[in-house]
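General statements about sequence and structure are easier to judge against a single worked case. Part of our work consisted of pairing the sequence of a single chain with a tokenised description of its backbone. The amino acid sequence and the backbone structure tokens for this protein are reproduced below.

***
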Amino acid sequence: MSNLEDDIVNGNGSDKLEKTLTETGSKDDENLMHNWSLTFNEYADQNGYGDPGNGKQHSEKESAVSTIASDTVTGKPPDGRGHAIATLKTGKVIKDTRKYVEVDADTKKSEKSDSIPDDTATGSMTLKDSIDNDRDGNISPTKTDEIMRTANGKQDTPELSKYTVLPGITNKSQTLVNAKPTVVVPPATTALSLGATSGNKAPRNTPATGHTGGKVQQIYVRFPGQRTGQMMFAEMDQQSGHVRIVGLDKEKEMLARLAWLLLDAGTSALRATFDSIHPPLNLREHLKQAHVKAVLQKLLQQSVLTERQWKLLYPIKKKHSTSQAYDSRTLIILLETICHLCPPYPNGWAREPLPNDGSLSADIVRLQLLYLDMARHEGIAGESYVQWFLQIRDVIVRLGGPPIRLKIDRIETELINLELQQHYIKTLRETWQPDLIQKLEKVHGLRSKTSRARKAYANTKGSEEGLSAEDRVVLKKVHKLLVENVQADDVIDRLQQSQVLKFSDRQDILATSKKQERTQILLDKIADSKLPYALKALFDAMKFKYKKLYDHVMAVRKQTYKEGVVTTIDVEGITEECLRNQYKSRLSRVYPFPWTDSVYGSVRDVYTSLDIVDTDGNKLSHADLLPLPATSGKGSRIIFEGTSGSGKSIFCAWLAFMWATQPSYFRAQYRHVLYLNMSEMNGNLETAVYKSLFPENFKITLSDFWKMLERSADEVLLMIDDYVHDSDIDITDILLGTRLKECTVLLTSKPHTKLPNGFVADCKWFNLGFNEGNIRRCFRNCVSISDLEHDQFEKLYHLSGRESWPLRSHLANPMMAVMAFGVYSILRKGTMLREMKTTCDLLEKYGVAMATLYCRKQKIDIVGFEFPDEVMRAIDALDQFAFSCVMNGRRTFSEDDVVQKTGDTVVLKFGAFSKFTQSSMLRFACGISMDFLAARHIADMSFEDIETTVMKNKIVKLPKFAQLMSFICGQYREDTDTSVLISLFDQLAARNEYCIRGLYLPATTLQSPVSVESELKTKRLDAVQTVAQSLPQRLIIRSDGLITLKTTQGLCLALEHKDCTVQEIELDLHQYHNFQLPVFLALAGSTSRCRNIHSIKITWSSLDTMSRYLAAVMEQGKSVETLYITEDHTRKCIPKHVSAVTWAAMQSACNHMTSVQHLSFLNARVTAVLNHVLQHIPTTIAHINITGCAFNLMCAGQIASHLHGNTMIRHLDLSNTKLNSSELVAIFQGMQMCDGIQTVRMRGARLDRPCIVALAEYIKLTHSLENLDLSDCELNTAMCTALVAAIKQNRTIKRLVFNNTKLTSEGRRVIAKTETRLNPVSVEGLLRLY
């Protein structure tokens, strides 16, 4: 035996063994041997080979030396998945890289593989048992003979005497015991088993049996505890039986494995990418295109492509061409030249892309550079191998997707022999030679020059980015053509690959469903792109899908660059950018609470959604809050109407901020949005607008700015906030359209604000304020902005949801809700809020809370609500200042102005003023608080001064003082012994008597002169009586807008008073009133309880509101005798779908018309509505008028059914109903059975012969008809003769009316002589005959 073996047997071989293992590179395997001082028998003991519990013979301690895997058995490497494993049992490890180790030849045995003895009794293991029991093998034991034959490349079983037999030893006994023969199976090295692909095959001279020479054979070795992938190479001399473990070149092996990864998985990933762009079915046709072939021929001339690659691209005999034969170099060249991919920005194809660039082009460049790097290496060090492998793997997975992982996992774990190592390294270097690298760079020469030109241009232009001036001109020229013909879906993928678009841009584009809108958004993003080649990338993406269009736009681009563009200032672009930046900076920090400037946020965080409806009754969504631009040559003029404190200003600010930060949020798109606050502007219009929008030293001059607005007015939205007629700024020309005609104008104002003469709004929006859910959302939003705990405000949340809380209806006003939050957050008394019933209560408690907060900050002790004198003096000064502002119409001022007028700086600390943004001026928190403070000042005057002030300033007369008048009355709501309130209501009563056509109530206020609460109802009956007596007999409630809550509540009190003298009510109900249904239902209840009202006239465009109002009136209105119900044709028609609640309300209203004697249901445009009314009205109605209604046969049948046997009806009016022949015949037949009709009016009826026959038959039979009106009809001579013949047999007809009736001359003569049996008939409307 060798010296190493002797030392091991004697127990002294630890040092030599460690040296040997170090040389072979196996020391790092802790599973192999974690303690180098152990002998091999100790190692066997430690690993359980002598443990009887493991089924191993302790007396025969064996150490598994090697596991030899046969690749030729399955054609795959030994990775544990379907491979035959044979274990060689021996008593010692033979592991020496310097020499062969001889083994005692006396222990050799020979036998056939088909007669391997069963040695399990002695603890040995045969090949058959090894295959059965090895944990990595899954080959059936019945294949043992085949395995042995295949392993040796022969059809017969080899003799075991040719192979090495290793003896076993005992622990330190130097005695040989039970040496067992074991089979050594050589490995296979077939190319297919090692994953070689087409174009990267293993050498053809590789022996099938794995022999590397005539006498030496390569085998694999695995130690106990090692994985299959950790096998080591060994060499065996077949003649002498010497075996040794070969020390491999690890760096070369790692390089070979990376080359294998690149040539196998990398090529597959590139092929998958190429096939996704040019599918195999269309590849041949694509390559045959003239421009593609010209590009490839140029590459062939430059020796970038070889003749072999050219023949693969254009085979002579094959009809079809696929990419399966293309190697990695060919695929990369094709991807970079003919696949329409834009080079990675900014380095192009030749250099490393940016680290965060995840585009397809960037990964192709990365993989190309990895090919080049690996081709230059001679070996890969162990410490850098993992980094290289992970880098290559990540790129390949991104290109090839999840399916490529299977190949990567197999390459990572399979063994690679010396032959394949040399093959893969050689193939990689041949494919990616240094001279080929230079040739590849020529491919990108033009692009590199272009890139350098771009950089040079960028350096000359400074920091400017984006499209060039020429490209911007080109985009404008072809914009309409692209929108109409290009679909964004066809180009968006390529634009995203070239990094022109981001993923978020893709989501924005695909969010809309209309194709033209998608293209519009795409072009906007191209125009706003910071990349100078964005437009060129768009045109390249259109190249093949839109070939003709591509040629056209490229011709336009070429001509534009040839002619050049005169460099001018982009006034529109600079203005747009400045406006957006101004709104972002101003409105990103706003102060929502008047009492503190330490709480702030962006206007988007502060804003709570408002309920906004238009004149058609449609509730506007957030996306529709920017009105549509002009399409007919004139922009829309829209009035946004709302009461004081309803959130108009913050709504406009929110629109401007959202336009600046998220322009795609709205459906309508504007390039310029001008947000103007009229209260902060004065002087000349042009100068005031310019100064309010732009900073000082703005580069665009005043004249250029207004010229731009006139030129592009259709892209301008003008938002004018807080408009009043007597403002210092005159915008009449803009409203009338003499200036900025195509501009869209959104004007905010209070109800009944006087507008310029001749101005008619195209549309009106009405601000309803908060709904029930948004009141609570506003409170939560206030708590969040203030960084307070929500648990502390649960009482406030709960209180806002109680319907019985009288103040809740007033909190729909956003400013009232904010003040309620301020009162609770400062005083923290839920009981105080719960006891509030009117806005006066809330405003008074708000003042108390502000004074309390001031005393806390100044550390002033207060007892209850007794405040020191300095606080009371400041409050009085504040009241006086508010009164002067109301009288003078002043709405904004600076802090110095306030201090100068009041003489006290403390007034600024009571939460009465707000400064919405840092740059804005001071103003009162809202118009409500200003009017309330002014009313307090008036209430503190003497009785004589109050009368003088009210009369002198026309507070009772002018509508703009209605809210102030309401608060003045509210100051005396608890005072039962005063002449002030009586005097004020006497003046209101006198005003009502003067306005004889209607009731004068402050329709624009939240607080009416007569409050709604029950306490006031008992204490202030004198005031209610005064107003009730002043109401006219005919009360007209007609408003082109919303009616405030307190107005209707005060009117309800007056109507229910016993002294109310109202007899007739006229009321308009439109679609937008449907959102105020509770208000009108309360008014209906009071109307029904007023015993003097006998006539109601309703003009409606909302069927639901009309039906439910009428049902509420008729349910208790026993005194109503006359109903006039007219549909307003100037409004939008009722919806096609009518709810069951509406039908039920209509039926209830008709069923309760028992007291009605005159029913006029006019101009109904929907036959179903008329049919429903006729079906349910009682037969007690004497006069029925259905003029102008739409009829069908069912309606005619309902009339006939209603008339059948009816003895109460006296008057029937069917004028202008456009009844046809069959419908009229049905009605006349029903009239024959009705004995009571005295008057029949059929103006405009389309009469024919059957109708006249039926009418004549009715005239003959009736005994009650006295008046017949056939005006506006058309009768021939025969009809007139038949009609006169029937009348002659009648005894009751007294009057015939033929106004504007078309008659023949003979028919006129016949009718002129008409008379009954008893009396002559009065004929009206006939022209005198001569």
